Amino acid sequence: MNRRYRKTIIAGNWKMNHTLSETKAFAEALRAVIGRPKWCDVVLCMPYVNLVPAMRQFKDCSVSVGAENCHYASNGAYTGEVSAEMLKDIGVKYVIIGHSERRQHYNETDFTVNKKVKHALEVGLSPIACVGESLEQREMGLTMEVIHYQVKALFAGLPEEKVRHVIVAYEPIWAIGTGRTATAEQAGEGCREIRAVIRQLYGARIARSVTIQYGGSMNTENAYELLAQPDVDGGLIGGASLQVPDFMAIIKAANQTTE
Ligand code: PEP
User: What is the Cα–Cα distance from 191 to 214, expressed in whole angstroms?
Assistant: First the structure.
């Protein structure tokens, strides 16, 4: 991490987990232990239906609430979808875009990811945009090519002044929900490469201002080592964000890496 130039962000991705009552119980338990995280911003991304009550429930514990997806259009005939404008209007600040589960199950492509990132930024949301290679791509030695392509695609046509509002999450697909974490070196290398692509596109000053997270089976055991990598500015955390003690331990690890 490099807190001089950019924010450290610990973000939970609850996926399709936690009912409203479970969300309330989580907020109460977190409020009792979180204090005021000194060195990192904390975000919890959760299902749409719980966003409004959760914003109230998490208000006193310095946690921002985020969504897990949004559409690239402002409104229209897209049954079942939610627009960035709708999220902004209820007070949401962050939205995950292009998670590999959405790419895999809901036809999300680099093209739609780019459209969504641009639209979310226009509306004033901070997108957490996910990129990362599959196991096959890694085994074929194509990791860096995939990262280059996906990062270039997600930033295509994005004006310079918007770039620092994008958070990029490096999420190797083989490490998501599998318990198989990237080594600290692999995580650091992926995030470094993402920053190198942003540098090529926008120059060094802008590249160093972008928060780049690692995601993929981050847990209480490996968080410190992963977060201590110079280009890893936080985590996008699935499974380990569902229980307060685990999530809290990761927040503490993020705070310790600066001390
Ligand atoms: C994720 O959902 O983005 C993720 C990284 O999940 P997990 O931490 O469970 O691997």
Answer: 7
